[in-house]
Amino acid sequence: MKKCTTPVLKINEAYKILTWNFSAEVFVRENFNKSLVTQLGISKVFSAEISKKFKNDFTSGDGIIHKQYSFSETKNLKILCSPCLNENGDVEAFSICLKLVDKNDAVSPENIIQAKNVVENSSLAIFLSDPNGPVIEVNKAACRMFGYTFEEFKRLSREDIILKNENLKNALNQRNLVGELRHELTGKKKNGENFPCEVHSVIYTNHNGEQRTSTAIIDISDRKNQEIIAENSMQAFQSLFDYNPDAVYSFDLMGNFIDFNETALEFIEGTKENAKAANFLPLIAPEDKERVLNISLKAASGEIQRYHTNFIGLKGTRRVLDVTNFPIYVNRKITGVYGIAKDITRQVEIEQKLREERNMFRAIIDYIPDHIFVVNQNHEIILTNYAFYNNYLGAETEENSLGLTPKDFFPEKEVLEIIDDNTWVMNSGVPIINREDIIRDFNDKIDYTLLTKVPFKFGDNKKGLVGISRNITEIKQKEEALELLNRELKKHTEELALSNKELEQFAYIASHDLQEPLRMVTSFLTQLKKKYSDQLDEKAQQYIHFAHDGATRMRQIILDLLEYSRVGRGEYQVVEVNTKNLVSEVLLLQKRCIEAQNAEIKLGELPDLKVEELPLKQLFSNLIGNALKYHSKDRRPVIEISAEEKDVYWGFKISDNGIGIEEAFKEKIFVIFQRLHHRDEYEGTGIGLAICKKIVDHFGGEIWVESAYGKGSSFYFTIPKQF
User: Fold this and answer.
1) Structural domains counted in the chain
2) What is the dihedral of CA 350, 356, 361, 366, to 10 degrees?
3) End position of a domain, from candidates 439, 472, 505
4) What CATH number did the domain enclosing 249 receive?
5) What does the pLDDT look like over 122-160, one tens digit per residue?
6) From the centroid of its chain, how far is CA 309?
7) What is the CATH number of the domain that holds 643?
8) Are residues 132 and 185 in the same domain?
9) Which residues pair with 319 in a beta bridge?
10) Range of the domain at 427
11) In this structure, are strands 65-70 and 17-20 parallel, antiparallel, or unpaired?
12) Using N-to-C axis directions, what is the helix angle for 579-589 and 613-629, rounded to 10°?
């Protein structure tokens, strides 16, 4: 440019002068009385009228100008302007050639030469052609752009260098209509490569009156690529904005929402219209407003902020949000704030629940009297409960116990054994459950314990174990006392068994030996009455009767005593017993008495039992016999026998409408030889109910009576299902 004699300026898009050649410096000084300096505006050089027209033409022509502007009454300022491309094909500046020409001699040979120089050296591909298509002239830039020589260009048509399609057709129609076109089309290179280009074509009439077309073409491949990249980036950003599962939004510096995605709209709880009319600050919970406002101001000043806040939607739904805010820059100026918010309400609730559960867990283990401790693979304590750190170690807080190892509170001799034991549990994965151990606490007190060690893994597969030590010193002492008591009981049991055996032998001998004299007394009294009855007076006869009756009753008492002593000692086999059949047999044995009293017997459903049959039969016989014996003389006897199943036993009931029992004698009737009536009224020795109680006790059940004096009695007894 320095060797060029034509005045040339280079400007940018803002019309600031970047560089110039010497001819331009002289031209401007002589014609505009200005000195050129870098960044000097064109409006400071040209007149206001020229500057205004130049800028309009520059804007409408994308920097391509070939015009004359009125400079004086006799001169025009001729300006040729074209873009300057860098090595990458991008427009880096604009070159301006200046020339003063006579208004009557605008097209001089010299002007033509200068114009040709400008065209030839322009970085734009410039074509001079017939409006119908044939190329007349091209510059070097066109040859470089399309790959054809000048001679080759002359043989080409318009469609050889511009892709024939609907866009080209529309562009030509526009140019033919208004004499000019400015359009993006597709260029075709010699090597067959297509490329996007911007075409500016004007139809004019030359000095010979012929129509010509001046066309400038710019390769906009790089620009298009950048636009595609920008568009892809914009689409990616928009996709990230629209389809982000988190809430994404933006608001201006006043806090008014500008844009938001669907998730953000869900949080706001409104339509797009009322959401856009909303300000974010009223949606912040009252307790967080001041803090969030300060944070947002920092984001609006250029800082990236992250925080948690309580957010309340327009419908009142409360959420906890994890928010990140960062500034929006436009032309290096902050115009608003972008935000990304994640709903962490559930996470916060879970964390709160975990804290509560941990506090509950902490409270539970601290109130457990057992010693609880957790150690890691380095045998360091990482958790203890109150009983361990305070009662065992004597530490005031758990923190004072953490990090300790067996070396810190065990004798050196025991340390290796404990570490080996712990290592085996952790490595083998086999727990130790309730192993008896002896320990010594910080007061040197020795205790018996049950020790449990359970292996576990935590963190990044690290090993550890949970230990539970239960103090069983008191239990051991009670066991020792119980063992001593058992030995004493065993001794007493053996003595009692011996005594019972001697008692049985005595009872047998006594019953046998006592019965023999009684039989003799009874026999001789009978013989005496038989042989000498006619010789004895009435008084002697009465004495003989009394003696015989007494001996008979004494014999019955002895037999009843023998029967009572045998209850529970007989070797009876447990068998399946149908109690209904068994009761029927008892009733058959009592048939004469039942018929004599015209008694009514009512049998309910009775179960099958696994029990000793003979004692059960004696139990029913005694109770039914009593019901028949103690009947009321005023009414017909009615006896009801029934059973009811419970969880672990069968309950039986034998009720009657007899004479009943006074309240004071309800417990007395089960005591041996306790009679409530004189023997002249009712026979018996008073041992029947005592035998019933002993049988029920032997079965493992209970027996009792409910009675209303004068109305009748109901005897109840239970027999366990597992006899």
Assistant:
1) 5
2) 160
3) 472
4) 3.30.450.20
5) 778 888 887 776 778 888 888 999 999 888 888 888 888
6) 22
7) 3.30.565.10
8) yes
9) 311
10) 354-472
11) unpaired
12) 50
Does residue 510 form part of some domain? no
Answer whether residue 494 is part of any domain: no
For the chain, give the number of residues.
Answer: 723
Regarding whether 91 and 18 lie in a shared domain, the answer is yes
504 is a domain residue: no
Strands (DSSP E) along 45-145, which ranges? 65-70, 75-85, 91-102, 125-129, 135-138
Report residue 420 as tokens: 């080996």
Strand ranges (E), 147-253: 180-188, 194-205, 211-219, 247-252
Q: Which residue has the higher pLDDT, 315 or 392?
A: 315
Reading the block at residue 111, the tokens are 């002007």
Instruction: Name the helix (H) or strand (E) containing 109.
Output: helix 109-121
Tell me the C-alpha distance between 130 and 158, whole Å.
Answer: 10
Distance CA 452, CA 50 (A): 101
pLDDT at position 1, please?
53
pLDDT of residue 78: 86
Residue for token pair 């559960």: 357
- pLDDT tier for residue 188 given thresholds of 50, 70 and 90: very high
pLDDT at 610 > cutoff 60? yes
For residue range 285-294, list pLDDT tens digits in order: 999 999 988 9
Q: Do the beta carbons of residue 41 and residue 21 sit within 8 Å?
A: no
Between CA 68 and CA 108 the distance in angstroms is: 14
What are the helix (H) ranges across 533-612? 538-566, 579-589, 591-597
Least confident interval from 4-8, 342-346, 512-516, 641-645: 512-516
The span from the CA of 143 to the CA of 122, in Å, is 12
